[in-house]
Amino acid sequence: MKVKPECFVCFVSQAIRATEIISKKDDDAIRALKNVAKVLSEIEYNVAPPLISEFVYGSITKTLDHDDPYSEIKKKYNKIALNYVDDLKRYIEDSDDKLQAAINISVAGNIIDFGSQIEKFNIKETLNKAIIEGFLVNDIEDFKLKITKAKTLLFLADNAGEIVFDKLLLQTIKNLYPNLNIYIALRGKPIINDVTKNDIEGLGLEEIGTLIESTKPTPGFWPDYCDNLCKKIYKKADVIISKGQGNFETLSEFDDDRVFFLFIIKCSVVEKYLNKPKYSHIFAKKSSLC
């Protein structure tokens, strides 16, 4: 999915939000936004939107000398998400289809996103919608066929807070498919509220799978930006769960039926690209969507 004109409005909105977190001074905000405008005027735009975000945020963090504006917000939403865990575990355990139940929970976590067009979100309401209404597009049966035969699963993580719900999905998969090798790819450096190794301390993800990192700070997984280990695992994975809209925006550039996209449509550009309503819940391969 390539950048559209509306994306530039979103880039500037993201820049304003990040700048306001770092400094409440108008002079700082104006200085940072002028540099962002310069970056956007010079950038190559025939790419997926998350690949531009790297330069937008890089400009802000360099200008205001702060490499992780959302650090405290990420901690906050991990704590908020953890408050739901006991009830959600019971929901999964009581479900006839535990895998589908865990996928329902995981997609609801995708509402915790400070890089999208959503100004406010309600985690409880989103969980209820995921449980009651399910998915607009759901390739769960194909996923079950593939994962039953798979040796290696790669999970491309998205945001802090959200990762708490993702852990419930990954634990469920591990319980159902104990011989599966699970790899969990995190962002290599901070960008927006995307999850890095620093953001998962104490969550126990390392007990479920092997943690790996992408290298560049982009809010979407891009294979060419990975180190050799990450590239090797990406290439050999039998099944890939691509979590979040940012990962969809990048990996939708490829035709790869190993990849199952799990996300909520949260912006008008993706809404138009897929011709599906905003806030729809998606668990699907690209071939089922485009």
What key attributes describe this structure?
single chain; 290 residues; alpha/beta; seven-stranded mixed beta sheet; 7 strands; 50% helix; globular
The DSSP helix count reads 12
Q: Numbering strands along the chain, what is their spatial order in the largest sheet? A: 1-7-6-5-2-3-4
Give the total of beta strands.
Answer: 7
The portion of residues assigned to helices is 40-55%
Q: Overall 3D geometry? A: globular
Order of helices and strands: HHHHHHHEHEHEEHEHEHE
Radius of gyration over all CA atoms, rounded: 18 Å
Poorly predicted residue ranges:
none
Main sheet?
7 strands, mixed
Mean of the pLDDT scores?
A: 95
Distance between the termini: 11 Å
Beta-strand level of the residues, as a percent range? 5-15%
Which class do the helix and strand fractions yield? alpha/beta
What would your notes on this structure say?
This protein is an alpha/beta fold and 290 residues long. 50% of the residues lie in helices and 11% in strands. It has a seven-stranded mixed β-sheet, with helices on both faces. α5 packs antiparallel against α6 and α6 packs antiparallel against α7. It is globular. The N and C termini lie close together (11 Å).
The gist of it:
With 290 residues, the chain is α/β, with parallel strands linked by helices. Helices cover 50% and strands 11% of the residues. β2 (152-156), α9 (162-176) and β3 (181-186) form a beta-alpha-beta unit.
Topology:
Blueprint (H helix, E strand, L loop, with lengths): L4 H18 L3 H17 L6 H16 L6 H12 L2 H10 L3 H12 L13 H11 L3 E2 L1 H10 L2 E5 L5 H15 L4 E6 L23 E4 L14 H9 L2 E5 L1 H7 L7 E6 L3 H7 L6 E4 L6
Parallel strand pairs: 1-7, 2-3, 2-5, 3-4, 5-6
Antiparallel strand pairs: 6-7
